[in-house]
Amino acid sequence: MLDIKHVYKTFNKGTPVQKEALIDLNLHLEEGDFVTIIGGNGAGKSTMLNAVAGVFELDKGHVSIDGHDVTKDPEYKRAKYIGRVFQDPLRGTAGDMWIEENLAFALRRGKNRSFRWGISNKEREQFVELLKTLDLGLEDRLDSKVGLLSGGQRQALTLLMATIKKPQLLLLDEHTAALDPKTAKTVLDMTNKVVTENNLTTLMVTHNMNDAIKYGNRLIMMDHGHIIFDISGEEKKNLKVSDLLAKFEEVSGKELSNDRMLFAK
Amino acid sequence: MNIISWLWDIQGGATLGVIWAIMALGLYLTYRVLNYADLTVDGSLTLGGAISAVCVAAGVQPILAILIATVGGMMAGSVTGFLHTKFKIPDLLAGILTQFALYSINLRIMGKANFGLLNEVTLFSQIKDLGIPSKWAGLLIGVVFAVVLIIGVYCFFGTEIGCALRATGNNPHMVKAMGANTKVYIVLGLVVGNGLVAMSGALLAQYQGYADINMGVGTIVIGLAAIMIGEVLFSKKTYFHRLAGVVIGSVVYRIIIAFVLRISLTADTVIKITADDMKLITAIIVVIALVVPGLKDAALAKTSAKEGE
Known about the structure:
The complex is a heterodimer of chains A (265) and B (309). By secondary structure, chain A is of the alpha/beta class. Chain A has a domain at 2-81 and 167-263: P-loop containing nucleotide triphosphate hydrolases (Rossmann fold). Chain A contains ten helices and ten strands. In chain A, strand 7 (169-173), helix 6 and strand 8 form a beta-alpha-beta unit. In chain A, helix 3 runs parallel beside helix 5 and helix 5 (151-163) runs parallel beside helix 6. Chain B is mainly α. Chain B has one domain: Orthogonal Bundle (ABC transporter involved in vitamin B12 uptake, BtuC), CATH 1.10.3470. Chain B contains twelve helices and two strands. Chain B has helices at 3-33, 41-57, 62-87, 91-110, 123-129, 134-158, 160-170, 172-177, 182-208, 219-233, 239-266, 278-308; strands at residues 114-116, 210-212. Chain B has a two-stranded antiparallel ribbon. Chain B starts with a helix and ends with a helix. Classes of the chains: A alpha/beta (265), B mainly alpha (309). At the A-B interface, helix 2 and helix 3 of A face helix 7 and helix 8 of B.
């Protein structure tokens, strides 16, 4: 479904702040894989997701989605295969536009946009049904501005927008990190439900090791721009946080410790 | 003081207001909807006036002349859009460059700095010939154009493309993630916006009976004044309210200007305010409109902070 082959990316090349973000990164995903990604700050987790989404051009390497080589495609062209939820709740929605306008916009992901009306009545009915499943009372607020919603509501809406037109690949970039713990859990459960029900191929970056173990069928750990640990199936189910910490020390020769990870028990 | 002359001031202000409102609608599209400070407008308004005047003098049907002028404005907008999206020139600079270049182009089109339309057939003379008093012909034409364009722009905003354009101004990241090319919509917004600005200039040239190389000076500030007065006076509930607010704002702005001139004409002040002072007064209006909402928010924050203590 997804193939990342020998991908290299260096930011600010030739300057004092040069950063080798991805070094010979390789990853293959089967259809329906739900992969959680952990790693320290600057390990390249978000950079990998952005490389897949086409936010920047690669220095070397190839990315293909569902058999299509998208290496040269700009971000907006790849979007027809990809649904995305970002860490910043403000990023995934248009705050000055209504809930129904955002959903209608998402429903047309990857399609040619024309002078037809932006929303049909039939779609409105569909939106009401979908919003009911979120159980946040948004189904009565189709014509509310998204900017009036809370961070959690906005992130739930973004998740719905990312999956309203079934994507070949779902990219979740620490999408619960900006939420309070209770809301984060709600959004995560919602995520798990939509991913498993639709059998979506998913990459989810998280800083919470418990979540990384609990969700998905495969876990990868990143450090210094490549994957240092890749585990799936039964083995992954039986993982413990202490195993992950030990594994990280073993492979990278340093402690996996940053404040966020230690506090996120 | 003569009440009749005041009423005529209102009528004259309203006429100029609705004609300039078309420009303000165009600016609203770029400045507010697309979130792009487009300085092309000073040049594209003059471009519209120049094309319209030259065409009318050459015997082209006045309404057709306005349409040709509109297309000219759209081309000017596409140049700015191209400079910005293709060559990554910052938005302000891209607009200034096009505007600067347009000065020469406008002079080339007119062949001189002031192009008069004495005794030519214009849209306004045609309406007069239908038996409508000349004082009302301008207002009638302006209102018809403004109403049609409000409805047109409102419907455009409701289309898939219109939604994408609004979303581009609001959150370009989201637009790209949803598979739409923001560059296309930036160019489209500038094309439509400058088309409207040029249409306004085209009407203005036919209304006042001449095009002038300096007729567009300060267009962006006048447009901002109209937009901001409209936002103060009108609700922002729907886009229909907002667009109508822009037109009302433009009319109110012109009436304010007319009254200021009237007062200075009749009152016995030391310094006589003339039409030349209007740019200063307009700038002050815009500054007030920009600062007051901020002060209001600050005052609200202060009171709520006190309540929180």
